[in-house]
Every structure is written in C-alpha cells, then in structure tokens.
Amino acid sequence: xxxxxxxxxxxxxxxxxxxxxxxxxxxxxxxxxxxxxxxxxxxxxxxxxxxxxxxxxxxxxxxxxxxxxxxxxxxxxxxxxxxxxxxxxxxxxxxxxxxxxxxxxxxxxxxxxxxxxxxxxxxxxxxxxxxxxxxxxxxxxxxxxxxxxxxxxxxxxxxxxxxxxxxxxxxxxxxxxxxxxxxxxxxxxxxxxxxxxxxxxxxxxxxxxxxxxxxxxxxxxxxxxxxxxxxxxxxxxxxxxxxxxxxxxxxxxxxxxxxxxxxxxxxxxxxxxxxxxxxxxxxxxxxxxxxxxxxxxxxxxxxxxxxxxxxxxxxxxxxxxxxxxxxxxxxxxxxxxxxxxxxxxxxxxxxxxxxxxxxxxxxxxxxxxxxxxxxxxxxxxxxxxxxxxxxxxxxxxxxxxxxxxxxxxxxxxxxxxxxxxxxxxxxxx
Length: 429
Ligand code: ATP
Ligand code: MG
Fold this sequence. Notes:
Bound molecules: adenosine-5'-triphosphate, magnesium ion
Number of helices: 15
Mean pLDDT: 94
Helix content: 25-40%
Strand order of the largest sheet: 1-5-6-11-10-9-7-8
Strand content: 15-25%
Oligomer: single chain
C-alpha cells in the first residue's frame, strides 16, 4: 500500500476484535459515574489555540512541544485538544453552568492529541475519560474522586496492580513561597543541574522535582520540602483528604515529588500508577485547580478533576488477563434458512421476534448456502443456538431449535411460540 494510505504514526485504528473490550471498559466506567451522580458533557475536539496556552500554561511540555496546531481557512489558530479540562472549563463558563456558585459534577470521554514519541502506552491520538467538579472545595470531593476510581479498579479486577500516589501543592500563595525557596536553593547548585532542569529553573521550577536525571536528583535530596511550606488551609485540606482515604480503607503513598505536568494544579494532586506497563505507568492522574477558572476569565470557582488513559487501562486489563470471556460473544441466536420461501418467512418471523425481545442478539444468515456452510457460520458466530428453517419446517409453521454449546436435542418450535421459548433460554442483556 502506498504511504499516503496509511494511518498517521501514533494514531491507531481500534479494530472489531478490540472494540468489545473498549465497550466493556467504557460501559463499566459510564455506569459507575452515573451511580455517583456525574453528568456527561461533550466538547468539540478542536478549540482556539489560545485556550490551551492560557489554561495549561505556555511553558509546559504540552504547549511547548506537543500540540497539533494549525491555521484554518479563516486564519484562526486552532489546536486539536491535548486534554479535556481546558475545553470543559471553557464550556462551563460559556454556558453559565457554574453561575451563582452552583456545583457541577461532570465527565467526558474522547480522543486527545499530543505530538509525542509513540511507544507502548504512549500515542499521538489517545483516549481519556475525565471528570471535573466545580464549586465544591472541600477534601470530601477530592476523596470521592479517589474512592470512585478505587471502586472502578475493583470492578475491573486490577486493584492489586495499581498504587495511589498523593501530594499537596498548597494554595497558590504557599506554592509561591515554596517556589522562591526552591529557586534560591537550586540556583546555588546550578552547575550540578542537567540542562533541562537549568532551563526549567527559569520557566517552571517545580518541574525540576520530577526530573529523571540522577545528578539533579542528588541535588534535590537536600532541597526545601513543599510540605514545610504548606499554609494552614492547605494542610487542613490535605489532612481531611487523608483521613477520608484512611476511613475508606484506601492505601496510598505520599510522593513529595509529584507535581504533575500542567501548570494549573493547587492543593491535592494524585496519580494512580502501575509497574506492569513499563515506563508508561500512570493510568489516571489529576488534582485540584482552584485558580484555573478565574485565570480563564471566570468568577472565582474551585475545581478538581482527573483523567484516565483508556489505552493504558486496556493494556493493563490484557496484561493481567482481567478480560471477561463473555464480552466477546456477540450473537445469541443464528438463523439458517434454506430456499427463497424459507428466507422470506425467516425474515418476517425474526422481525416479529425482535419486536418481542428487543435485546435479543439474533443474526440471520446472509448469502444463502448449503446446510453445511450455514451451520459452520452459525458455529463460528459464537451463537448459543441455531434456528433452522427449511421447506419441511415451513410447511408445518415450525422452526428447528438447536443448542450449539453443550447438551440438548434439536426440537421444533411453532412460529408463534418462538419468542417465548427464546426468552426462557437466552439471558436478556
Ligand atoms: P505522562 O507522564 O505519562 O506523559 P501526563 O502527565 O502527560 O502523562 P495527563 O495529561 O495527566 O498525562 O493525562 C492523564 C492520563 O492520560 C495519563 O495518566 C495517561 O494515562 C494518559 N495519557 C497521557 N498522555 C498519553 C499518551 N500520549 N498516550 C496515551 N495515554 C496518555
Ligand atoms: Mg505527558
């Protein structure tokens, strides 16, 4: 195939053999979020570039090097969204959803775009499910976000493989004081810092804390600690969160170096990490961003949220073998018909049955074929039962019913009794 007909590197097709697992995952999350009282919001995939610069921060990896930005035909600078929070805040403000201090508990799902180096668990188009909560400023809601993800890991069977890391970045005031102290300390050791950290010291000094460079890490051992700079408000908030996680029995570790890649976080930050996926170990990450809405031109409005990476969680389910077998069976009943007259009757009969059993997964054989070939297809479809309609059955107004897996003899069922019979043997989803 010529190069122009290939997908873009790092942007993947999700093939029919994979979609059952995606739908299982997405369905599980959607049901859980419904149950906790979150409402779905859907934003466009493209926004004005300015939105991301103003919210994510000009000197972050995302804005500096990872955005898909282009000029449209009007000459506007547009960007494929690299994350969901910015657009969600924009939508909330534009439609007045948080007017008068009204709380909102929202979620979204969809593709995000970042020009990174593609590798396992890291793609240029990837998918997130994100939650954002506005106008609820207590540690109770931070705890709820974590508790519900913990429940999700339980439902998916991956609890043992993920670990919660937690930190507090403090209010913007305490963070500001800490930043000054950190810059002062690191400036005194400038020659021992790697090049990237030297640059970050000027642009985004907190990011030096999560450096992978061993020499810089050695310098950081004696650096001022964020925890010592938290003001009372941040400290009380953090203690409140930890008390709730303890009460709910959710294990966590405090990671003082957890700062997150985006500029807008304050107070709580957290990541769910796994050691089962190599370098791409963070499956869900988020935190509080109390200053963001104001920074984007809204009234003071607190916010807290997270996003999980669907590809990484799917990889984790596969790696751990936590994929329920039954999600791949998509046919309950496969109908074989032989000859034109039987085909016509089969279509009419199956539509009647669908009227009565709206959740029945009934596949009609297409393309005719011999008894042997249709039966082979019935078996290959994964169906539990085959229905068989030939000239003889048609003459008697009955249809053959044959269990395909396990015991049970073939029997004839009257047309009129078919729906009732199927209702007794097929679990209705
Ligand atoms: P990382 O440190 O792995 O680059 P991040 O801090 O940039 O992650 P966030 O912006 O917090 O990631 O996004 C939340 C989640 O989305 C991540 O924890 C991860 O699961 C997923 N994610 C982020 N970038 C990618 C990507 N390029 N490909 C696949 N999943 C991603
Ligand atoms: Mg990243």
